[in-house]
Design a protein that fits this description.
Blueprint (H helix, E strand, L loop, with lengths): L1 E7 L2 H6 L3 E6 L5 H12 L1 H7 E3 L2 E2 L3 E5 L2 E3 L7 E2 L2 E2 L2 E7 L5
Parallel strand pairs: 1-9
Antiparallel strand pairs: 1-2, 3-4, 5-6, 5-9, 7-8
Helix pairs in contact: 2-3
């Protein structure tokens, strides 16, 4: 199992009622698996804040895996080729102009 640390910011943390949580995912774990687990835990409204459609993230959302921004849902959550603990930061963009 891969242990994935999730850090939620802004409205996502408020919706979830927590800013930090951990998920255990089957290996190899992908970003899509983590997002599916978050939907299972927090419901479809939470998923709608993250996903524009089943294949695309919301344009205002930024996801970082080990401090590197990712947009590919098939990103494998690993470090140096080995599945391990990974931090995902879901950062909704700030409003304004």
């Amino acid at each position: 199992m891969a242990l994935v640390t999730i850090k939620l910011f802004g409205m996502l943390g408020a919706m979830a009622g927590t800013r930090d949580l951990q998920l255990e995912l089957a290996e190899p774990a992908h970003l899509r698996d983590a997002l599916d687990a978050l939907e299972a835990r927090f419901g479809p409204e939470f998923r709608q804040r993250i996903m524009r459609n089943p294949r695309a993230l919301q344009t205002y959302l930024r996801i970082f895996v080990n401090e590197t921004e990712v947009t590919d849902l098939d990103t494998v959550l690993q470090i140096n080729g080995l599945p391990t603990e990974v931090s995902l930061m879901l950062l909704p963009a700030a409003e304004g102009g």
